[in-house]
Amino acid sequence: MKLEKTIILAISLMASTNSFAQYTSDAFRFSQFENSVDARFGAMGGQKSSVGGDISSVFGNPAGLGMFSRSEFSLTPELSLNNSKVNAFNSKSDIKNNNLDFGNLGVVFHTRTYKSGDTKKGLLSVNFGIGYQQRKSFTNDFNFKGITNNNGLGDLFTEGSNKDIDDDGYPAAPDRLLSNVHHLANKSNLTYYDATFADPYEAITSTNSDQGYDVKRKGTNGNVDFSVGLNISNKLFLGAGFGLANFNYTSTERVSEIGVYRVPGTSADQNYDVDYVKYFDTQGSGVNLKIGTIFKPVEELRLGLSFESPTWFSVTDNYSESLYNIRTGNSDDDSYPFEYSLRTPLKLNGGISYFIGSKGFISADIGFVDYSTIKLSSTNNRIDMDTKRDITSIYQNTINYSIGGEYKLDKSFLLRAGYRSVGNPYQNLDDKDYAVNSISGGVGYRFGDYYLDAALINTNENLNYSNYTLSAGNQPNAAIETRTNKIALTFGVRF
After folding, report:
1. pTM above 0.70, yes or no
2. Domains of the chain: residue spans and CATH
3. Fewer CB near the last or first residue (10 Å), C or N of the chain?
């Protein structure tokens, strides 16, 4: 019987709105990434579409590979120092996380296409690049606690149980609930069943229960890039790239709730103590394409344009949830394996750079991404339609821009600085609060065929977190403001 329930449950795939919200947020989570850069470009505000001649071109505008005059290898590790302020239940707490990440690794092979004669006309070189980049880190741990007010776990399981429809078209009785977690919630007196009502389940837990949240996330979104760049007459540079993408994401989100429930039919109260745990384990693999160009109308000026296709992911999602009654020792769980395809938004980027002789340059970029075009598709039409509706109503297009420059103190030492702003992807939230802004700076040192670059990037970002969703929209919520100081180091060699 339990196997039959599990099969039916997997097919129905959680009819509650909580389930659809999960896939909507996951589709956005796995679509929100930026191409990696080395410490040089990082210090100048991120990708520079029109500069070229940098290992970052492997991951950004592949036309920049055409500007290499020698082969080159580089490695960039990154250390992120995160300080988060969590505002929940009218109180604030500080959380610190430090993460050592693998930024990127790349190599460019320079191939000269001429042997003699005019070196200023025609195809002068074909350069190939290959590299691995970490486009996003999902690692993030935080916790908070407080007192609920008509929005605790009893309210969550009441709404879910009332949507658990039986064969007769009415909410199922407790012993016929498809969800094992909802059944245990009823046995644990978080919900009460009265068949005389149209919505027979009600929450009987108190309005001032204590809740504690503990969230642990980890994983990465990475890409292996294969790129080629052409140099035509030292004026026009063309490039194309092919990427193999992958991501892995795991998260354990625990809600511990302690309170009292009203004993049905009496005026007496009893204590309860439960843990509700949601576990996510998601893997994805896919492909993407890039094309780009850089044009030098005069020696001092460079214009760049690049196009990045959507990444087409195949995703395997293993989501499960469990409920544990600490006082009785009873526990139960539900699992929802699901496979789907995910198409992320395409990206357009343009840039302009002005070079001041051999002393340095200033460069500005602008980019466009429309998150409302994210598409999830599967064999479950209901999930596809509901997710599409939510994506188009929650997310919007963003305009991202950056400006930065480099100044050469002498033949060995260089100084860099930059600023970057990533637009707010949410339709109904204040752009001022949900744009991501960063300032950066760094230095570079050249010694023979080797170089060493360092960057410090300071970023502010605001996020909201809710473990579950209630129909009234009054679920517990945490506002998280994170300030990140990222230190990036690039070691490279030309050969």
Report:
1. yes
2. 2-152+205-494 (2.40.160.60)
3. N
